[in-house]
Amino acid sequence: MPDRFRVYSSLEETGGRFGPCALTVGNFDGVHLAHQRLLGRVVKIGRARGWTPSVLTFHPHPARVVAPERAPRLLSEPAERAEWMRRGGIEQVLILPFDAAFSQLEAEEFIARILAGTLGARVIVVGENFRFGRGHQGDARLLAALGGRYGYSAEIVPGLGIRGRMVSSSEVRRLIDAGQVALAARLLGRPYALAGRVMPGRGVGSRKTVPTLNLATEAEILPAQGVYVTRTRDLVDGRTWPSVTNVGARPTFGPGELSIETFLLEPLDGADPRRMAVEFLRRLREERRFESPEALRAQILRDVARAQAWHRRARRWLHAG
Question: Angle 97-100-106 (CA atoms, 0-180°, nearest 5)?
Answer without folding.
Answer: 90
